Amino acid sequence: MTVRRECQESLTNEFEARVRPPLLGNSVRCSAPPRMSNFTFRAPQENFTVDDFELGSVLGVGSFSKVVGAKKKDTGQVYALKIMDKDFIMKQDKASHVKRERIVLDQLNHPGIVQLLFTFQDSHSIYMAFEACEGGELFDQITRKGRVIESDARFYTAEIIDAMEYLHGLGLIHRDIKPENVLLTADGHVKIADFGSVMVTEGTKIILPPLAASETACSFEGSAAYIPPEVLNNSTATIESDHWALGCTLYQMLSGTSPFQDSSDFLVFKRIKARNIKFPSYFSDEATDLIDKLLDIDPRRRLGAAPGGYPALKMHPFFKGIEWSKLREASPPKIALDSNDSTRDTTNISDGFFPKKSASIDSSDSKRGTRRISPTLELNAAKFASVDSFDSRWQEFLEPGECIVLASKIKKLRLLTSKKVQLILTNRPRLFYVNTSKSMENMKLLWSDNPNDITIQVLNPSHFKICTPMKVSSFEDKKQLAWHWKKAVEGLVSH
Ligand SMILES: Nc1ncnc2c1ncn2[C@@H]1O[C@H](COP(=O)(O)OP(=O)(O)OP(=O)(O)O)[C@@H](O)[C@H]1O
């Protein structure tokens, strides 16, 4: 039996067995005795298989998961099904991340937190079924609207604060508050998601599985643009780290970009440490003041931190008119739909989750080379494609009969560095890049054939991520073709 196999079985056992508190006793952090005996999950472990569900469209892709709309065949109930590949989780050393999310979510109960309903597994994957947030990510609202008007941003921020107050009251630090992890219900209320990075403060009553040796509160978690300066300086994450991330999120809602945006993580970190921030002139005085106080370099002085705590934060003039106790009864901002999806009514869940053409794969369709490029895509491709697409230099990388749909010279981003590559999408379909900075050009295949194996996440017009089950790669396209890449790939996948 290979080591990998043993690890996989151990993950299965640890994750899905009824976890008992002694296993979870997380040394100093979890000082209050948790529920000791007969520990059972509120969200049960079911004996379902993936065949019990009709899978719909991909709702989102995380670093090591794919979330799809899924309708239970016998009940017709719709869920957001998070699918995690066990092999991939083991390879990425993320087993404790997954366990933490499962166990923490099981103990939370708040309208502003996404609810875990049940889990199941098979030999390859772990499945977590969540209540579906049909409104998608707050991030998409920002992208679609360009920026969110102040009254809408006030509402979203108030609902995020309401959920954060609940989490912090339980002694939980989320550590990854950002517009991608703020989901919206069909009618537009906020639900915070993604609890894989969560940490507990001393005295919490929340049960957490033990940390992997590599994971501590001051380990580097979260997304570059929202990491607070003290964590970059190797201090421990605290509740106030979430307040910093909230300040960044509000800034992003109002301006369309994060406050410390730059071309590489390295430069972003430099800006954060220097608190190099510029407030656009169209921000109101109240918004500027609130963000300024949330983005205080000193975590102890951040608005929302003790001693004023949440009452002081909620009394800030930016929130004038907010009825904190009636947030969930208030009318949320209208959800902006994807321009390709203008007919979709978010109140009718099955429209959104189950487009007429199911995303499931037709085996004949998925065979290499049989999928046709659609007429619209052909037209658009000509419009999208830079001159590079027709550069004969790339012919040597093509198979007989294969043509380039879209190609562009772009930057492949890594944590601290980047390299110039030629990214090429073909009608096979195949997506690969050629490393142009090397004298001996070498080619790396990112994806081919299987429509379920690729998602493009657009962060802004020039930045996007290509997500496949094995890898998430980040790119910067100076020609601002990020949306074109997404549309071109999706066009090939759905035909
Ligand atoms: N309940 C839900 N309803 C609708 N969409 C969801 C739901 N849960 C997650 N998603 C979508 O899936 C994406 C990935 O989910 P999630 O953040 O939980 O995955 P992850 O692998 O933990 O990601 P990360 O890389 O941020 O750690 C979300 O950003 C969102 O777009």
UniProtKB/TrEMBL annotation:
Amino acids binding ATP: K91
Statement: the UniProt record of this protein carries the keyword Kinase: yes
GO molecular function, one term: cAMP-dependent protein kinase activity
Endpoints of the signal sequence: none
Ribosomal protein is among the record's keywords: no
InterPro entries tied to this protein: Kinase-like_dom_sf, PDK1-typ_PH, PDPK1, PH-like_dom_sf, Prot_kinase_dom, Protein_kinase_ATP_BS, Ser/Thr_kinase_AS
EC number, as in UniProt: 2.7.11.1
PROSITE patterns xref list: PROTEIN_KINASE_ATP (PS00107), PROTEIN_KINASE_DOM (PS50011), PROTEIN_KINASE_ST (PS00108)
Keywords, ordered alphabetically: ATP-binding, Kinase, Nucleotide-binding, Serine/threonine-protein kinase, Transferase
Catalytic activity: L-threonyl-[protein] + ATP = O-phospho-L-threonyl-[protein] + ADP + H(+); L-seryl-[protein] + ATP = O-phospho-L-seryl-[protein] + ADP + H(+)
Ranges where the Protein kinase domain occurs: 53-319
EC top class, as a word: transferase
Membership in a protein family: Belongs to the protein kinase superfamily. AGC Ser/Thr protein kinase family. PDPK1 subfamily.
Stated name of the protein: non-specific serine/threonine protein kinase
Organism: Platanthera zijinensis
